[in-house]
Amino acid sequence: MDIATLLGLISGAIVLSTLILMGGDFRMFYDIHAVIIIFGGSFAATLIRFPMSAMIHGLPLGAKLAFQLSSLSARDLVDELARIAEVARKQGPVGLEKVETSEPFLAKGIRYVADGYDLEFIRDNLERDRDNFLLHLNEGSKIYRAIGDCAPAFGMIGTLLGMVQMFSNMSDPSKLGPFMAVALLATLYGALVANLICLPIADKLHGRLIDEETNRTLIIDGILMIRDSKSPTLVREMLLAYLPEKHRHEEGELVPA
Amino acid sequence: MDIATLLGLISGAIVLSTLILMGGDFRMFYDIHAVIIIFGGSFAATLIRFPMSAMIHGLPLGAKLAFQLSSLSARDLVDELARIAEVARKQGPVGLEKVETSEPFLAKGIRYVADGYDLEFIRDNLERDRDNFLLHLNEGSKIYRAIGDCAPAFGMIGTLLGMVQMFSNMSDPSKLGPFMAVALLATLYGALVANLICLPIADKLHGRLIDEETNRTLIIDGILMIRDSKSPTLVREMLLAYLPEKHRHEEGELVPA
Amino acid sequence: MDIATLLGLISGAIVLSTLILMGGDFRMFYDIHAVIIIFGGSFAATLIRFPMSAMIHGLPLGAKLAFQLSSLSARDLVDELARIAEVARKQGPVGLEKVETSEPFLAKGIRYVADGYDLEFIRDNLERDRDNFLLHLNEGSKIYRAIGDCAPAFGMIGTLLGMVQMFSNMSDPSKLGPFMAVALLATLYGALVANLICLPIADKLHGRLIDEETNRTLIIDGILMIRDSKSPTLVREMLLAYLPEKHRHEEGELVPA
Amino acid sequence: MDIATLLGLISGAIVLSTLILMGGDFRMFYDIHAVIIIFGGSFAATLIRFPMSAMIHGLPLGAKLAFQLSSLSARDLVDELARIAEVARKQGPVGLEKVETSEPFLAKGIRYVADGYDLEFIRDNLERDRDNFLLHLNEGSKIYRAIGDCAPAFGMIGTLLGMVQMFSNMSDPSKLGPFMAVALLATLYGALVANLICLPIADKLHGRLIDEETNRTLIIDGILMIRDSKSPTLVREMLLAYLPEKHRHEEGELVPA
Amino acid sequence: MDIATLLGLISGAIVLSTLILMGGDFRMFYDIHAVIIIFGGSFAATLIRFPMSAMIHGLPLGAKLAFQLSSLSARDLVDELARIAEVARKQGPVGLEKVETSEPFLAKGIRYVADGYDLEFIRDNLERDRDNFLLHLNEGSKIYRAIGDCAPAFGMIGTLLGMVQMFSNMSDPSKLGPFMAVALLATLYGALVANLICLPIADKLHGRLIDEETNRTLIIDGILMIRDSKSPTLVREMLLAYLPEKHRHEEGELVPA
Prior knowledge:
The two termini of chain A are about 25 Å apart.
């Protein structure tokens, strides 16, 4: 569970609710026209922008992953893989059946080794899995960014629609206020959808993408070395050497800081 | 048929119609001045921006391809090419005459092989075809993006034109409303043309460009190997090796997901 | 003659004239203050931005080239050069004196060969010519882009100047209208200068730059091979091999399409 | 102490106070709604945007480092390291215990050498320290930039919230003024937080990051050479050769200029 | 003297004066609040953004160089260096004492050679000089760009400050005009400082940086070859070969054009 995403959404909701309740009630800030143009318009533009398959896979995956914490840091992962290599060394593939891990992708790799599949099959399957996952994660990040980029424009479109109707029907200027309030709601919704939800989620997914690429490649390399019965020391050393510099000491920092 | 583009345009139209009908009628949102400045202005600027030949080829090709689904994924294409290599193996070039395929570019390549043209001629013709196609697709994507970038500016120009006329003739402030409504229509049209139509289509065409480049290069490589009577297994393996990593497992993902 | 640029400017003028005449007359849209701030301000900022020599060479060259069609496509050029190599083969350098060509830079190269200058002299002179030409074309493209980027800002400055005067002198709100109309004209002029003229011309010049770089380098290489009495077939093959892929089939496409 | 940052903040505060006191008093510019939306909204969006650990480490580190002067320039550092190598040469590791330095990272390295740790241990520890430090500094710079990018948007959101309430409740247009003033405060706060505080700090941290990367790498290389008992002359020459060109003469310039 | 910069600033001043005098007088456009926020705010933000030393060196150097013409083009410089090599050839180092040149950096190099310093010393000193100069020129360009980027934001902040005060004190709407005029002055000042002064100067300094890097490197290479008693022909040929292509024919173009 990535607590930051949830905390961020909750505190955003609290901030908005507080401000709204301080100056009136929620009904003043609800307008069906604004909801239709922001969500309908952004949905339509996003449909045109991406192929159907990207929408089907990327959107829900992104929503799920934004709230999911990367279970292990790259450095923890190397330790975990060295531990598993230790088990495989001492007890053979059979011993791996009892190994437990919190990372599902790693668990899948361990099961393949325990079941005695050959190297080629394991590599092919895990790489295909990793590539699909990263492809959809990337699509998810791009879709949220695209929505965050066009929502303010649809907010402006909604406000313009409202103002055109308001000015066209205007006979009594004193009734201009409430119409203006409703027209501005579309701009408000667009800015909120973009700046409080979609753009931050797109940024978080982009960060996730970079982490997952490192981690899943690490897992594949580690699993293949374990399948090859490499010694735990060798597994740890080679995986550490693969780590990009900035990941190499990432975990260590959390201890002394 | 790329259903997403069509669905997107239809849902965009529904969203707009709903909003317009909820608050008035269509006539309130039609203004000939706004139509002239948005379409005339964007057309004039685009004419200056691009050479004539890019306009003639890129614009209609883009409009067509935005609605056309890439018939096969890269991975399906490799399977298709291996199947065709199988046929060529067993029945010789003559057998290819009866092979059917949904991809016109592939069909053209097969016909060349069936007709017994030599390798050099086939490569030259297919590569020239591919390059022309990609060139025009790229021009199309750029033209739609250029229109999407300048339409909001012409919307603002239209609104300014309307406001200058309105303020110049202003004697009775109470009649300011309907004039203002009309002036705002140009900004509204510009924002809609850009955000609901042109920019999403430019993005879709850009995505198509990347896919088509991979697919058509794959087809050319495959056809040349079939012309060379390579075995189906070799065709499949070599083409898979050519695939960029993200395409290699693209199709597979659609099955289990 | 690049018809697209001219057509674009003419249709832009028609669009504006139509809109202006539909709602009033030209005098309503002319204001000497707006003319001074847009042209004076952009001119002053551009003078500071670039060295004097870039202004003197780049600005008129850009204006000229935006309307001039690249006489030959890269592929036509290769055919032309092969044809000239044929002539030089059969009739010797003397025969080149009667060769006619629509491209002045090519004509200059042919004259050098016909006059029997040595290889070193020809290469030096043509490369110096090409580099000067590309340098000024690049300066021209940058200057038009710089004007297009700052014109809207000077439009805003003009409108602010007008509004400050208007608000300062304001005693009778009913006379606010015509002053406002005049103030808005500066913003209108800035948006038109940028979006209808300068930015599209900068884009066209940038496209020209890329084409001319390929063409003039092709011509130099071809002329040097002709001076060296290479065979026409060799000239054609080597020049085609130099062409970047996207240019290689450019001309072919125009025939069947 | 980086005097520039402090002077900048103080002069910014003086400028604002002067302007506010010239036209009224501070109470006129304080509004709890605007404070809540700017700080609450930016905080919520930043929480969603970054992982929790980046927030915990990067934000305070950034705040601290923006005010801290890089104690030594790269060139001073080379001189310092050569001086320490001199001491180590003459008095052995024991002599290092008495060496004093203003740079804590360098002091740590000297202590390791004085305590006789082996090369591998020293390199590992110092590199891990440097990488953690740079990672958090980079996170800090990115977080301040993200806040600076979204604060104006939340300012606009706050103003829209206020205007919706104002227009909804509007019965007496003459009371519109004070409400409008309050609504504009959110935009004002957002612009100040972004342009006077967050974006400049993000830029300063980015500059720090580049300097610290050079300096800490220099220190590690120097300490390892001292551990290896290299001669002071060699230490100085090799470190100068490592320096990127622009740093090589940085210190020298401060003397004659 | 770079006439373009001076002409640009003068014509900008004339344009503004003309517009102001056509519609009123200068006092209408002077407001102490706007001066304080634009200059104070931009100064404060720039202090936070850059280290103190960059401000002290970069700002005045930039101001000076924007008005100073690069005394010689790269091609002239090669001729000058060949001429000096000729003198050194014929009369020995002593003859160099009488050589005159308009470029101070070149003069310094000649003096070093005439005084008989060794190669290493000359290279070290000239490179250190060049690097310091380029470093400060780069800082100057960045500082002017940073001011140009934040001045419009401080203009908006000034206008918001003014509008908040205006709306808070508003009792008589008929007095709103003059207050509004004053509030708009800050936006006007910000736009002028950015678009007429700082951004164009930053662009000119960036152009200077590229030229000076080429020229000073050329001078150092030439001086070292002269110190080595290379022949004038060799000096010219080797320096021409070092020139990036676009500089090689720069001077030539000015003659025939």
